[in-house]
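Q: Can someone sanity-check these two? First one:
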Amino acid sequence: MRGPLFSGAIGHPSTLGRLADLVRPHAPVAVLSTVWLARALAEVMPVVLLVEPDNRNAARRALRHVEGGRALVVVAGESLPLRGQGVGAIVLDALSDIDSADAGPFVTGLLPHVRPGGLVVALDATKSLLTETQLAGTYLQAGLVDIRQDRPREGAILTVGRAPAPEVTAVRVRAMGLAK
């Protein structure tokens, strides 16, 4: 597995290999918006790529030649078109780019779609300890458990957390005003 030419540390085979090792036992995996990442993971496991409507055709073209039909492109708007607890893991690229005030509620809103004990994994390009701390804080705010961070390569960090029990997720979602 390898990312695009200029993807740097996050597209390096060691980073993608570590990511695949983490999420493979939790397949199917949902990847938010990042086509190249979904394509790389689809080489080794079933992947659902969630994209905005404007990116649907480009995403389908990019994933057309993935062997074994392991990739599915789904259009997502404000809410995710996944059934409750429908995926074993959600992979986010560049969570650190989201404003820190919005990141916690964003991650919390993903939890109802992840099976209990499933993973939420953020892949970020950073060498900053402050960014690492902010990512861990976002996961704490969202109510994830067993939070850990892994640096498979300098300049890349994987932040991993397990989805809590559905009752805990429901309380967190209500507390943040995200309940439907």
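And here is the second, same format, sequence then tokens:
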Amino acid sequence: MRYVLLMILMVVPLAVSAETIFLNGVAAVVNMNYITYGDIKARAWPQLKPVLSSVKRAELRTTVSNIYTDTLAQMVEAKLIALAFKDEGGEVSADILEKKVAEFIREKFSNDRLRLIAELENDGSSYEDWKEHLREQLITSAMVSKKINSKIAISPRLFRRNISAARTNTSRRPRIKYSSSR
């Protein structure tokens, strides 16, 4: 992450309200990759849609601001993870991505790609943006698997020993002593 240049340029418009978001304004730069307010708004829309009708007007500004701020943080993290993945020589091939897309469409939409596209358009997103988001998820999964899961190692013997120790520590011995004073 030594090459990462991260600048949050203008988060203030996010805190004001949904109407003041400048769609082409730059919200953050992550190693010369730009995140615009329009990107944030598009990514946050599925979370915002139910909130706009259910949250009281007094709470709406802070709720929308929190959603935008969280979305920006998630997008910055995704860019940082993608950069680390690329720096380590990782690559998500088009073939792997298409297999994941086909698997998702088969499981969630009964092999109906048009239903997926219609739902994405209903959420204000495009198929290409969704595909890029899926690519980011694959990269994040690969990095988690590489960095975290590979470091979790416990032998079966150690596991059994820890379970046995836990069982003996939690035996059903009485923990409260009763006394009757008359």
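A (reply): Looked at the second one. Confidence is low (pLDDT under 50) at residues 1-19. The longest strand covers residues 26-30.
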